[in-house]
Design goal:
By secondary structure, this protein is mainly alpha-helical. 64% of the residues lie in helices and 12% in strands.
Length: 102
């Protein structure tokens, strides 16, 4: 998937967003993704600039729920992306079976 001519959104960016949602932290998501925090933050800013909306926001308050979370538009986008990928994978499987079935 592309935004404009340059920025691509695929499994890597989707995984980073999923990890932010899972951990509630960009730092922890970047660590699990084996990416520097600085690179992950740049990755997100580039994505937000290309898409035209915010993907992450600071979670209010202290304690276990503070940190970072996906915005509602980002959650919807990620859900649609998963649905899109699922449809592609199903179509690829059908085409593969038709092409190589003996």
């Amino acid at each position: 998937m592309t935004f404009g001519d340059d920025l691509k959104f695929g499994a890597g960016r989707a995984r980073l967003l999923e990890l932010i949602e899972k951990h509630g932290s960009l730092r922890r998501a970047a660590e699990e993704f084996e990416m520097s925090y600085r690179h992950a933050w740049g990755y997100l800013r580039e994505l937000e600039s290309a898409a035209g909306f915010k993907f992450v926001e600071r979670a209010p308050g202290g304690g276990p729920h503070s940190g970072m979370r996906l915005t509602e538009p980002a959650r919807r986008f990620l859900q649609r992306y998963r649905k899109f990928r699922s449809g592609l994978e199903a179509a690829m499987k059908r085409q593969f079976e038709r092409s190589f079935k003996q």
